[in-house]
């Protein structure tokens, strides 16, 4: 609706008057601004939550990778420790072990 500033009346003013303005009640403007503000704040909150979740996922992934590396390093150390503790086996002994551990039919043929 248009409001005639000169007469204070509502409705369309005469076509020759240039003092007509679009009449929007102040409450509607406030409501619209509040709605826009609420929507913007909601979007910003969701964005912050997504960023926080992403940071947590990255942190968790880094922690898992560190634990995995530590576990692998520990396994390697255990394997190396076992190799150092085992007595050296000669070539002949290895052949004998191969025969003993082979399938029974193969061991009988030798």
UniProtKB/TrEMBL annotation:
<feature type="compositionally biased region" description="Basic and acidic residues">
    <location>
        <begin position="49"/>
        <end position="78"/>
    </location>
</feature>
<feature type="compositionally biased region" description="Basic and acidic residues">
    <location>
        <begin position="27"/>
        <end position="42"/>
    </location>
</feature>
<feature type="region of interest" description="Disordered">
    <location>
        <begin position="1"/>
        <end position="78"/>
    </location>
</feature>
<protein>
    <submittedName>
        <fullName>Uncharacterized protein</fullName>
    </submittedName>
</protein>
